[in-house]
Write a structure and sequence with these properties.
Blueprint: E1 2-7, E2 9-10, E3 22-23, H1 34-54, E4 58-66, H2 74-87, E5 89-100, H3 102-105, H4 110-117, E6 121-127, H5 131-137, H6 143-156, E7 161-167, H7 174-186, E8 191-196, H8 204-210, H9 219-235, E9 239-242, E10 245-247, H10 254-260, E11 265-268, E12 273-276, E13 279-282, H11 287-295, E14 304-305, H12 308-320, E15 326-327, H13 328-335, H14 339-342, H15 344-352, E16 356-359, E17 362-365, H16 367-371, H17 373-387
Parallel strand pairs: 1-4, 1-11, 2-3, 4-5, 5-6, 6-7, 7-8
Antiparallel strand pairs: 8-10, 9-10, 12-13, 13-14, 15-17, 16-17
Helix pairs in contact: 1-2, 1-11, 2-4, 7-9, 12-17
Bound molecules: iron/sulfur cluster.
């Protein structure tokens, strides 16, 4: 099982952000915030309730996400991890990640304190190394903070550091994006996530773009940024293992791999989603509503039952986002059907347009296919819904396996399936 802990606090709201997060302000000491104290109390209560129900389950990864989890003092993180260890069977080599914003780490002992309390992977939200871009995004940190935080984490002894970047920013050119990647590669993180900017309705940036203050790069440039960016990272030894994720060998984020493989996960904190034993539910988004619910001893509720058909659709969507792709055998095991027969016409059209490759029982998107992955996946969805009818065989989850280089399909060798 995976555990996700949502920390719903930030220094200030970034201009592009539509997440559920409370802005504490630039100068407020997090521990002096009553909202933060209440949050921690409720989180521990929520954990205690789950402790009664799921005690002893094996946990492979723990992820503190947000929000800005690095606003949680290491002592509190240590207490939470301690409770988790008492309730669950945390694997010896469990991956325990914490998302951190650069400004919260600079000039502090926080990295070594997080390391000491059990965090073994840091995910730094750099987003950009360009001061002007950071201002447009409304980030609280400066470019120099990013460098300092990464160095501080390294000096503290972190050997697994990921960085988050964004591309397709207002006014950004292809050359600028590729230069950003070069600058980041020089910092030698183990993992790089590169997400295209999405303009979310109701955000400051969306309004500014609507008013003509900023212009996003044209579609053609976005496609080049994606394809050339991925090619550059691969040339530097960062293997693409998912549409937006690259890592040095052996440093894929196991937590995310677990999601993509359909493992059970327990989400704690406001707005966190859980999926356990083929049931899914989401906590109330607002802290007050979440607190009230937990105070009444209620967790879960309004569960969605995941039918075998829903799990098949999710498996298609999630696995096609990975470079390994969709296992045709797994589809057959889950449905009793042959994917290539069920989707014959579409597979043929995608193949003719070099958007997919099929090899040794795996179907994967090519780099061009990844550019239009949403359209491909939604078309496959519709076709799958048409051809599959319940009842389907009961489901079992596969264990998380680390992707290895030799598992990556060879894009040059295309073996077209026999009709
Ligand atoms: S730090 Fe992250 S969660 Fe917080 S406002 Fe910025 S983008 Fe949103």
């Amino acid at each position: 099982m995976l555990i996700y802990i949502h920390v719903p606090f930030c220094r200030q709201r970034c201009h592009y952000c539509a997440f559920q997060a409370q802005a504490l302000g630039r100068d407020v000491e997090p521990v002096s915030s009553q909202a933060m104290r209440d949050y921690v109390d409720t989180l521990l209560m929520e954990l205690a309730i789950w402790g009664d129900r799921l005690a002893g389950r094996r946990v492979e990864t723990i992820f503190f996400g947000g929000g800005t989890p690095s606003l949680l003092p290491p002592k509190i993180v240590g207490i939470i991890l301690d409770r988790l260890h008492k309730i669950f069977t945390i694997e010896d080599n469990a991956e325990i990640s914490l998302e951190a914003n650069p400004e919260s780490l600079k000039g502090t002992l926080l990295p070594s304190q997080y390391l000491a309390c059990g965090i073994n992977r840091l995910s730094l939200g750099l987003q950009s190394l360009d001061g002007d871009m950071l201002r447009v995004l409304g980030r609280v940190h400066k470019a120099q903070d990013s460098l300092n935080s990464l160095l501080a984490a390294r000096e503290a002894g972190f050997v697994n550091i990921g960085v988050d970047l964004m591309w397709g920013l207002p006014g950004q050119s292809v050359r600028h994006w590729l230069q950003s990647l070069k600058d980041v590669v020089r910092l030698a993180p183990e993992h790089i996530s590169a997400y295209g900017l999405t303009l979310e309705e109701g955000t400051v940036l969306e309004r500014q773009c609507r008013q003509g203050l900023f212009t996003l790069p044209p579609e053609r440039d976005l496609n080049i940024m994606f394809v050339e960016g991925a090619a550059y990272l691969e040339s530097q030894g960062y293997l693409q293992y998912e549409i937006s994720n690259f890592s040095r060998m052996g440093y894929q984020c196991r937590h995310n791999l677990g999601y993509w493989q359909g493992l059970d996960y327990l989400g704690l904190g406001p707005s966190a989603t859980s999926t356990i034993d083929n049931k899914r539910w989401t906590n109330p988004a607002h802290q007050k509503a979440w607190t009230e619910k937990i105070a009444k001893g209620q967790v879960a509720g309004h569960e969605e039952v995941l039918t075998p058909l829903i799990r098949v659709l999710e498996m298609i969507m999630l696995s096609l986002r990975t470079v390994r792709g969709l296992s045709l055998k797994r589809y057959k095991d889950m449905t009793g059907h042959d994917f290539l027969v069920d989707h014959r016409r579409m597979v043929q059209a995608l193949h003719e347009n070099a958007l997919i490759r099929i090899r040794q029982g795996w179907l994967r998107l090519t780099p061009s296919g990844m550019v239009v992955s949403n359209a491909i996946i939604s078309n496959l969805f519709e076709q799958t819904k048409k051809v599959l009818t319940e009842p389907l065989p009961p489901l079992t989850a596969e264990p998380v396996q680390s992707l290895r280089v030799e598992d990556a399909p060879d894009v040059r060798a295309v073996v077209w399936p026999k009709a």
